[in-house]
Amino acid sequence: MATQVHANAPLDAGARKGNLQADLRGALPEWWPVIAGLAILFGPTFYSLFTGAWIGEEQGHGPIIFFLAMWLVWRKWPEVLAATTPPVSSWLGWPLLAFGLAIHLLGRSQNILMFEVGSILAVLAAVLLLKRGGRALRILWFPFFFMLFMVPLPSEFVAAVTMPMKMAVSWATEHILFGLGYPISRSGVVLQIGQYQLLVADACAGLQTLLTLEALGLFYLNLMRHPSAVRNIGLAILIVPISFAANVIRVITLTLITYYFGDAAGQGFLHGFAGMVLFVTALVLILAVDSGLQWWIKRREDSHGSGRGKGPGAPTVMKEAT
């Protein structure tokens, strides 16, 4: 019997894969007009993003968020097909589609990036509601929530929130390097180290960086699917100080590069490399904090388990053991 089970298992997996491919091929005639329409509608928008906003530091996380969200949709799509067959269209898709097209027209004509990018989410959600119904959108809630992080925020709001963050990062950088013996001083968000002056820019310590790291942290949580709510909520909250620490490390790295190798090195290739340092540092810190939370939760569960084992019968057990 065991041999028969092992022999049939690959066949079952292959059959499921074949059924999925057959379902996708069967859905192609129904979906290709929708895909073609979306490509015509948003093709100019994506061209503008990939040649403009998405190649800059402030919005450089946009394509990462979008492609990760599409990968999450593709990963969940078999579940969507299984849960929405036969499909039941939702009438809510029509007003949402009208809203999405309206803000796309407004954003495209008036060069309002927030509306233009936001319309992508609205139109995609409307298409999903019209084609597969509300249950499909409930299954795919996280990819659509995740895509919210690629929508640019109003510049006035970003500027108001970013300035205190830049001041805090500048203050922390000054005190850390001064404590290590470097000749550094600060005036607002301008750092003076040796003969060089460095302005802490928005991209080095801004709100968009915080939102990007928060998005990547939530993506990590979605993949890990920890059963502990304490672990999930705790890590999501701790991403904020993790982001601050990663920003401080990035500014310290740029400051030291400028101090040792000159202003050209700090503003040239190594400046972009410092951005990689930011995200690698944040990823390492997220993994470290997650491991710490896991250890703490396990230790707490073990202590509670041993506490439950103690009772009136405990002295008797010790006596018998003696």
Walkthrough of the structure:
The protein has a three-stranded antiparallel sheet. It is built from 13 helices and three strands, in the order αααααααβββαααααα. The longest helix has 50 residues, at 2-51. It has helices at 2-51, 62-83, 93-110, 113-132, 134-139, 141-147, 155-179, 202-205, 207-224, 229-261, 263-267, 269-309, 314-321, and strands spanning 184-187, 190-193, 196-199. By secondary structure, the chain is mainly alpha-helical.
Layout of helices and strands:
Blueprint: H1 2-51, H2 62-83, H3 93-110, H4 113-132, H5 134-139, H6 141-147, H7 155-179, E1 184-187, E2 190-193, E3 196-199, H8 202-205, H9 207-224, H10 229-261, H11 263-267, H12 269-309, H13 314-321
Antiparallel strand pairs: 1-2, 2-3
The Cα radius of gyration reads 26 Å
Number of strands: 3
SSE pattern, N- to C-terminal: HHHHHHHEEEHHHHHH
- The percentage helix is over 70%
What gap, in angstroms, lies between the N and C termini?
50 Å
Mean pLDDT: 79
Shape designation: flat
Task: Let me know the largest β-sheet.
Answer: 3 strands, antiparallel
Q: State which percent range the strand residues make up.
A: under 5%
Instruction: Enumerate the spans where pLDDT stays under 50 for 5 or more consecutive residues.
Output: 1-11, 312-322
Tally of alpha and pi helices: 13
Strand line-up of the largest beta sheet: 1-2-3
Q: By helix and strand content, what is the structural category?
A: mainly alpha
